Amino acid sequence: MHSTLTLELPPSTLLHVTQEQFQALAAANPDLRLERTAAGELIVNPPAGSESGKKNSRITGQLDRWDEAHEDLGVAFDSSAGFILPNGATRSPDASWVARSRWEALTPE
């Protein structure tokens, strides 16, 4: 059973979550674009506007074409991929690429 949750915080309020809490929130709310800063602050990203979406589409397309031409070098991702960074933040960039050696060294977690 799914329930709907509306989260309204005053603009000056920051919600801090652990990495484990963040992962549970993200899994329970797959339609939300959530990120977490290195300090544990929860970021809820609204959908991109039409101009940003247009630019992001072009960036992702260019990266994908380059990646296909150099497929042995690494792996490209779109904006729905999230990454836990060395500083502990969890971010989802508009487009990203990871060198194959780094990608293959990662665990599934």
What does this structure look like?
With 109 residues, this protein is of the alpha+beta class. The protein contains 3 helices and 6 strands. The chain has one domain (19-105): tt1808, chain A. A two-stranded antiparallel sheet has the order 1-2. The protein has a two-stranded antiparallel sheet with strand order 3-6. Strands 4-5 form a two-stranded antiparallel ribbon. A hairpin with a 5-residue loop joins strand 1 (33-36) and strand 2 (42-45). The radius of gyration is 16 Å and the shape is globular. The model has no long low-confidence stretch (mean pLDDT 89).
Tally of DSSP β-strands = 6
**In the CATH hierarchy, what is the superfamily?**
tt1808, chain A
How many helices in DSSP terms? 3
Q: Classify the beta-strand content into a percent band.
A: 15-25%
Number of domains: 1
CATH-scheme architecture: Alpha-Beta Complex
Can you give the mean pLDDT? 89
* Order of H and E elements: HEEHEEEEH
The name of the CATH topology is tt1808, chain A
Structural class, by secondary structure, is: alpha+beta
Q: Approximately how much helix is present in the residues?
A: 25-40%
Please report the distance between the alpha carbons of the first and last residues.
Answer: 26 Å
Rg = 16 Å
**Largest sheet properties:** 2 strands, antiparallel
Which term fits the overall shape?
globular
Unreliable residue stretches = none
Strands of the widest sheet, in order across it, are 1-2
The CATH C-level class name:
Alpha Beta
